[in-house]
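Page 47, continued from p. 46.
Same chain as before, 128 aa.
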Amino acid sequence: MGSAIYSVLPLYNAAFPEVCMNDVLCVVLSTAPDRETAERIGEALLRERLAACVQYEAVRSQYWWQGELCTDDEVRLTIKTRRALYGTVEAAILRLHPYDCPQVLCLAVDAVSAGYQAWAAASANPAV
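Result:
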């Protein structure tokens, strides 16, 4: 990786050039009732350049809903995006989601490889 990339990474650590302390990226988690719905939401986020990557994983969820204990098969979306885009990502998920109260969680990423951070930050860029 050339040194030019490090000029855009505010927390570059010279002692560990392959790792950056991160204030740029976050991971957003959501679930959908099925793969088709999950991929529709994920593809919309990608097409709008609100996400660099979306992964899909089958999960079994247990939760309380309207006083009842429920168990459902769902698909988890793991969305890699820029922290600055979280509000827009959340709004898009809420707009596209069939659930009354969808899970939308934003997880901080404390550290990330420099190359991945640069790629993800450039990819999740609606201005492009």
